[in-house]
Amino acid sequence: MQKPRETRIQASLLAGVEKRALIWMAERLPAWVGSDHLTALGAVAMLGAGIAFWLAPAHPLALLAVVALLAVNWFGDSLDGTLARVRLQERPRYGFYVDHVLDVVGILLLFSGLVAGGFMSPIVGAGFLIAYYLLTVEIALATHTVGTFRISYWKMGPTEMRILLAVGALQLLRSPDVVLFGTRVLLFDLGGLIGIAALLATFVFSAVSNTRTLYRREPLPPRPEATAGTEGTGRLVVSSTS
Predict the structure, then answer these.
(1) Pairing between strand 7-9 and 183-186?
(2) How far apart are CA 80 and CA 19, in angstroms?
(3) Closest residue by Cα to residue 25 from 11, 15, 38
(4) 3-state secondary structure of 51
(5) What residues contact residue 102 under an 8 Å CB cut-off, 6+ apart?
(6) Confidence check: pLDDT of 60 > 90
(7) Backbone φ and ψ of 120, nearest 5°
(8) SS3 assignment, position 230
């Protein structure tokens, strides 16, 4: 028996507009462009964004390349699945697996570039990655056990996160620091700490919610009655042998 397909939950701020735009583009892409091409394009763009962050201290205009590469990543990473659905060429397990493998590698490359470029301290970068991976694992487990693949939380999804990263990259052209309570801190350290708190809170909320859902779906079975060697009254029958 084939496992039923999971329910996708996408309720971010831009989800409706984004869906219509992706379908419009998918219907007009040349036939020679396939989903795998778009997936590869998105992965290469994320690698390029990480390299651009790394090069930005010596070449500040590389930050403009970060913004462009985040847009290319959105195009490839968001459009590949839509293209497969529009063309009725879906490979749900393959697509889910490859997308998530590339996502965890891509976020590592991106934040490694931020740290290597001096825009984020290593401890904050490591903390963000740990929190991100915790939530990623929880989403994957929920997809398998609960049957829901949640793409967004609190009206925030991958597209909104790319926009925040792009805005932050543009702000770096002015200054890598911000003043907080009279102390100068790295802009991306502040954003990273906020992100860590949000990711951990989301992880806890989602884990508790999914645990409760599964507990209701699979209640404890009744304790087995000791039926062997009993009468209908429930009293134990003791047999004797001569």
Answers:
(1) unpaired
(2) 12
(3) 38
(4) helix
(5) 39, 42, 43, 46, 77
(6) yes
(7) -150, 140
(8) strand
Domains in the chain, ordered, with CATH?
Answer: 8-217 (1.20.120.1760)
What are phi and psi for residue 4, nearest 5 degrees? -65, 150
Could you write out the DSSP letters of every residue in 171-223?
A: HHTT-SEEEETTEEEEHHHHHHHHHHHHHHHHHHHHHHHHHHHHHHHSPPPPP
Rounded to 5°, the CA angle 30-71-98 comes to: 70
Cα 139 to Cα 226: distance, rounded to the nearest angstrom: 41
Query: What element of type H or E holds 178?
Result: strand 177-180
| Three-state secondary structure call for residue 109 | helix
The alpha carbon torsion through 16, 22, 24, 27 (nearest 10 deg) reads -140
d(CA 230, CA 225): 10
Q: Output the average pLDDT for the chain.
A: 89
- Reported residue count of the chain is 242
The structure's pTM equals 0.85
Scanning 5-121, the segments in alpha helix (DSSP H) are: 15-26, 35-55, 62-86, 92-116
Distance of alpha carbon 31 from alpha carbon 24, whole angstroms? 14
- At what angle are helices 187-217 and 158-172 packed, to 10 degrees? 170
Tokens of 157: 């999804």
- Lookup result for tokens 């693949």: 149
pLDDT > 90? residue 114: yes
